[in-house]
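User: Need the bound-state model for manganese (II) ion:
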Amino acid sequence: MIDPERIATFNIGEELGLVEDVENLALRLDREEATPAESIIEALVDFSVAAPSWAVGTGGTRFGRFPFGGEPRTTEEKIDDVATLNQLTASNRSISLHVPWDLPEDPGGLREYAGDREIWFDAMNSNTFQDNPSTTDEGRLSYKFGSLANSDMAVREIAIEHNKEVIDLGAALGSKALTVWLADGINHPGQADHRTQFEHVADGLRAIHDHLPDDWQMYTEHKPYEPAFYATVNFDWGSSLLLAQAAGPKASCLVDLGHHLPNANIEQIVSRLAMVDRLGGFHFNDSKYGDDDLTTGSIKPFQLFLIFCELIRAGDGSLPALAFMIDQSHNIKDPLEDLIQSTEAVCIAYAQALLVDRAGLADAQERNDATRAQEILQTAFRADVRPLVAEARRRAGAAIAPLEAYRESGYRAAMIEERGSESVATGL
Ligand code: RM4
Ligand code: MN
Ligand code: MN
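Assistant: Bound-state model below.
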């Protein structure tokens, strides 16, 4: 991790400018009778978005993979990276593990290791999309034709078993949720029956749901295509909702921002799911074409803002306690730098959504004044709230300028020294 003194020293150079920027913005918001700066800063101090264990290393595409250098080799080292990230941002207080990419031999020890670094375990992710090496008397069992939707009951059963094991592991780690994303689907029209596949998945999810400890949640994550390219079983929010409802009361839907067909109105999906109380969480990233896993807020920042507006609407003025995570694949950037940028983008969207004059907007909607409604949204969206985000970080003891502080710290060079330049651990 980075020496805290180093971050404190780095902050000294930034402090004067920040105080002035926060004061100016606070005065302006006061004058405009907008949401007080102080309440936004406080909300930001409380906010945290999880980092996935697979995003601290580089991903790759099916054409190639280029390790960034100094990538974590073990789950402990992934925790070290997330703890370092959190030192800089104070907004990434948890890590989300992916099993079996992460398969701790000593879960109690790992829990302590993370706790010592003030990191806790967010939702667990099961993996039934890469092949399964189990064999039975009849031969090898494979996920080639699906997991929970497989026509072979023996394969469905090992997929259910795997999810139960992930829950047990998560319980030992202190996690409180399981996210199920399935690759199950159909590549060629006619290859399988839509309804039979759906029913198999619903049955499987119900069995997994019934294994959840009382204080656990389960999230169904939809995605329209890839690796199945004709149809996926859980392809959209409607299927996700049906599956969550079929699974049981602890199940809700997880919205990955890259898992929608082009131009889908994601904020409206958020509104619908929140309305029926089945919105469970998010995987933040950005997308130009599909499941691109680009830096959050780098392509459609307005969409991200509108999503946060819906969340604040759902929470009647404050953010509901959902599972927030960044799900990205960093192919050419330093993964930690990309996570810093993404966290900043999420915090900015959150702060801007808190700025929206909700009473004014409701009034404009009542009077069908579309112009005024747009003005209200744009006033919040165009406000530069970065000083508030930086101030929240400063108060939490993190870096005022995390990206600069990270570069200045020499962390990556030290990790290349320690872990090597070719290390790989993500499993993707
Ligand atoms: C999927 C989906 C899941 C993630 C895997 C690695 O596209 O986004 O959330 O676990 O990728
Ligand atoms: Mn995802
Ligand atoms: Mn994805």
